[in-house]
Specification:
about 270 residues; 7 helices
Length: about 270
């Protein structure tokens, strides 16, 4: 298990850097550069640049998710997924029973992607403010239930929120962004106008991934610490889920500011 921990964490970080780095390239650099290209330039550049970039993008996403799943097993679930006792990483305290409630929350972590996809395919998605408030509230509910109903320990509900975001992001890459981009690239290569719906879908889900990525990175690093677990900031431990939601809100604000800044950076 120690060998798997070291090996798969190494691969996880390499794959994650590849994936998230390209995600930021697409959203904060490439989108602005592409807007300056004429039709002939796009016909030459896009079919050569995008397939190469998207290859590392989608496989970076796949390997990040796969190794992340393995790390959850190695670090948090090993010996804890039966209806027996937790080894101490998943539940509050060593020797605490892993109940059916914990299993339900694990299903939510990996099944929440279908609720997310349904919401953003519904008419609610047309109102950005409303759908954002709904999304934030649902995320808060999941974290609250992980801490106070499933009895996940602080490090566990941090990293499982990250796993939920990572699952949604990987789903977007493989089942929404990549299929749409294949159609877009083919159209540009043939000198045709890309399907507007495909452009909108790929752009929106890529933006969602960018917004989820910053809180996700926090959960990856913060599961190694307990400073925000409650008490250190004068906040009772039972409200530490609220601190995590504050980080989600802060992360979204940081991304919003970076989007604004990216539009102001000019070429020579």
């Amino acid at each position: 298990m120690e060998l798997m921990h070291a090996l798969f964490k190494w691969i996880h970080i390499i794959a994650g850097i590849t994936w998230i780095g390209l995600l930021y390239f697409f959203n904060w650099i490439n989108a602005h550069v592409a807007a300056t290209l004429d039709a002939d330039s796009k016909k030459k550049v896009v079919p050569e640049l995008m397939p190469r970039t998207l290859y590392f993008f989608r496989w970076g996403a796949a390997w990040t998710w796969i190794t992340g799943f393995i790390l959850l097993y190695v670090i948090f679930w090993n010996g804890s997924l039966s209806m027996g006792e937790s080894a101490g990483n998943l539940m509050f305290g060593s020797g605490v029973d892993v109940t059916w409630k914990a299993h339900v929350m694990l299903l939510v972590v990996f099944g929440g992607v279908f609720i997310y996809d349904f919401l953003y395919n519904s008419s609610l998605a047309s109102n950005v403010r409303v759908i954002t408030l709904i999304s934030f509230s649902l995320i808060g509910l999941v974290v609250l239930l992980m801490q106070h109903v499933a009895m996940f320990e602080y490090r566990a509900f941090n990293i499982h929120l990250g796993a939920m975001f990572g699952t949604m992001m990987a789903f977007n890459v493989w089942f929404r962004i990549w299929p749409a981009q294949q159609s877009i690239i083919t159209s540009i290569k043939n000198g045709e106008a890309p399907d507007g719906d495909k452009l909108a879908l790929a752009g929106l889900r890529s933006k969602h991934n960018t917004y989820m990525s910053v809180p996700l990175i926090w959960t990856m690093i913060n599961q190694h610490t307990t400073y925000f677990a409650g008490g250190n900031l004068g906040v009772p431990a039972q409200y530490s889920w609220l601190l995590l939601m504050g980080i989600v809100a802060l992360g979204w604000h940081i991304v919003w500011q970076l989007y604004k800044k990216s539009g102001q950076v000019k070429g020579f």
